[in-house]
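Lab notebook, bench 4. Continuing the backlog of folding jobs that were queued last week. Each job is logged with the same field layout so the records can be merged later without manual cleanup. Today's entry covers Iron ABC transporter permease, a 334-residue chain. Filled in by technician R.K.

JOB TYPE: sequence-to-structure
TARGET: Iron ABC transporter permease
LENGTH: 334
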Amino acid sequence: MIFQTKQKKVAGLILFSFLLMYCLAASVVYGYVDTSTSTVIDSFTKFNGSNEHIIVQTVRVPRALIAAAVGASLAIAGAILQALTRNPLASPGILGINAGASFFIVCAVVVFSAHSLQVFSWIAFLGAAFAASLVFIIGSIGKEGLTPIKLTLAGVAIGAVFSSLTQGLLVLNETALDEVLFWLAGSVQGRKLEMLTSVLPYLIIAWLGSMLMAGKINLLLLGDDVSRGLGQRTQLVRGILVLIVVLLAGSSVAVAGPIGFVGIVIPHFARAFVGTDYRWVIPYCGVFGGILLLAADIGARFILMPQEVPVGVMTAVIGTPFFIYIARRGGLTK
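JOB STATUS: finished
OUTPUT FIELD FOLLOWS
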């Protein structure tokens, strides 16, 4: 743990928050169309209708805000899932959220000929919520109720089913593959600010809820027996946490598609800085997640310029080495 005292943790959070703001500004300034800081400022104070000003307001600002919100949400969701499942490799995908959202999107394209990203966002949210609900119901079956191992197994099983169904639909309809391929790779390119504002109320509720539940997560990590002995209703707490994950990951997938590795890697970085106290892990995950996705998105603009790499590909490139390291290290989250 790098930050041992409360004062250092507060100072670190402030420092990384400034870094997040810098990444937000860099995301707005840098891209294929050459702009500067003064151009960005002028686009809001002296708007003249130029291409540069229009791009800043309608493309880059929404893209930066979406990347920051999605990165923060996926990281927090991953941290909660790693605590719930006691699995250091847990991420939103473990609940079948990505797979459920992807299946619903492909169904919408194949069956209903849907094409709008705005429509995709709501269909994806519905699919994510449906998949997570199935996992929660199946994982709760039995006399012991919802347990970490049952939640993990149910998530893997439901995710496999939805992934298989999605692949089957794409094999039968190659046109659908062309329609949804970019979305399935995970991207914040071309997303409008309205897509973020449509899910922002759910994200705010989930962000606040995760902070309020942080102390209860700490008790869960002590074990069910200890948690119950201290008066905590473990099944209710797990149910609320699963709902928070659905709101966080479902909203993120709805807006940006299934972006991987953020929810796996970032919680480990947060715990390396502040330990296992989730009252600090969650805010650090939010800041680190936003920084990672913003940095990945900025990099995605320049690798194959003028073409852009989906940010989901960039996070995979960045996250794979850490994923391998975590997998080889093994062990459970404390």
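OBSERVATION: The mean pLDDT is 87.
SIGNED: R.K.
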